[in-house]
Amino acid sequence: MQQREHFFTTTTSLTELDLLTIDYTKPYPRQRFLPYNDLPQGIIKFNIDQQPRFQDFTDCGFDLLMRLERIDGQGAPVEVPVNRDYELKVLFDMPALQAEKIYDISIVARREATPTQLANETRPACQLTPANLQLLMPNVANVNTADYQTTVSLNGYAGMQQYTQLDPTAAMAAAGIEGSVTQEKVLHTIHFRTSKYATGAAKLNSIQSVSVTPVNAYVPHYTQNGGWAVLKDLRIALTAGEGFDRYEVLGHPFVSSGSFTSAVYEFGSDHCTYDGNYGSLWAGRVCSEIYGLVQQGSGMGSTGGGSLFNPAQAAVAGFAGSLPKLGKVDLRTDATAPAGIRHLQPLLSDAEVGLSGSSTSSSTTPTSFPVFQPPYDPFAPTLPVQPTPATTRLELIWRPERAAYEALTMIQNNQLGLSKPPAGYLFPNMTDGNYPLHIRLNNISNSIVQSTSGSRTLQLNIDL
Asked: I need a surface site. Which of 25, 96, 137, 210 has the fewest CB within 10 A?
């Protein structure tokens, strides 16, 4: 009989948080415009339970805390406990912030012990070397003797007073006092900058329309008879008291699922749903025509009634739900929509947050935060952000005619036996006039599904 033995050495589990286990944080990493009075609690949202890791730290005598400090070194650091009583997140109270400042948030594990206690530690997982830790006081030479003067007077030991000014270690050793060592490990760091505004609502109220510029777009006739249809894309220029970063307009990507948190500001115009209530504006008339074609072929009536237990009607209802919404502001920057978003301000760069070895002054993709590097960044392959100098402008592309055309194309090519749309040359183009642009402010809360906390409507004067 043969036997084979395997030997292995365990190492400590007291390690940093793995970036790929973090869905998102608030404040967002490298965020440029956090309203400084809008976030009462910070959060780290995980996609894998971190309680075993935190329990290992606790079992080894560490406390978990959040430390907030300004990058420029002004003001004293503020520390608060970390609430880890949740399976997939930790929370911490946010201290008072100042406007237009860059901050560093560190999640820290810290313990105090005497050198003798550390030397007698028998649990391998708790035996950390200096390479694994930041030793705030790596030896007793850095211990403040004032901590002990209430119980031990160094003056009572002959010849020791002369050492207290020069070397408190010698005096304490002679007095039989063993100083404690503070060991600290940084588990995760978040850099962010505050807005000039205390609240998102204040910034919302500063947004103004600058101009609307029509741009010709050419698409094949949806009737597939050859030729091209000429449509109008609308480039909307807005301005505010400061710029916008990607989190405000696009939201934050989840690492695990590829979905997003809601954007802070959502843009759209009047849109229609499959209920027969379309309004009287151009969008309403086009929606009436589009959904009318669907309804005529479904037998569901002008109000979209009928039973969805009928498989045919359910299929039509599902098809109608897939049609493009005219009111949505299109933010794509793929090959068919090259204009995309303009003037999004970059996230904080390495140089701005004080990381060594960086000479860049701006960066749209932080080089020190791998979650935002391909292939983990859902924005990377389809949504390049065009960096610009600091500006308060934001340009969005609104494509209501394209949305209507795409909807008619889907109806033209559907397999549900719906009525066919009119010929391509009868496409209902937009007309001159005032059109609403609705801006919705999502509450900066700790939930994945945001709640609306404000809205504003701007009138866009469109001259085609």
From this structure: 96
Question: pLDDT digits over 15-40, tens only?
Answer: 888 888 888 899 999 999 999 998 99
3-state SS string over 3-22? CCCCCCCCCCCCCCCCHHHE
**Whole-prediction pTM:** 0.76
Residue pair 433/400 in contact by the 8 Å Cβ criterion: no
Q: How are strands ordered across the β-sheet holding 393-398?
A: 208-220, 228-239, 393-398
Considering Cα of 103, then 109, then 111, then 117, what sign does the dihedral take?
negative
Please state, in angstroms and rounded to a whole number, the distance separating the CA atoms of residues 238 and 210.
5
Q: Which of 287, 269, 270 is CA-nearest to residue 396?
A: 269
Compute the residue count for the chain: 464
Residues 344, 245 contacting (CB under 8 angstroms):
yes
Q: Which helix (DSSP H) or strand (DSSP E) does residue 374 occupy?
A: none
Q: CA separation (Å) from 225 to 141, 222, 355? A: 87, 8, 59
CA distance linking residue 127 with residue 133, whole number of Å: 11
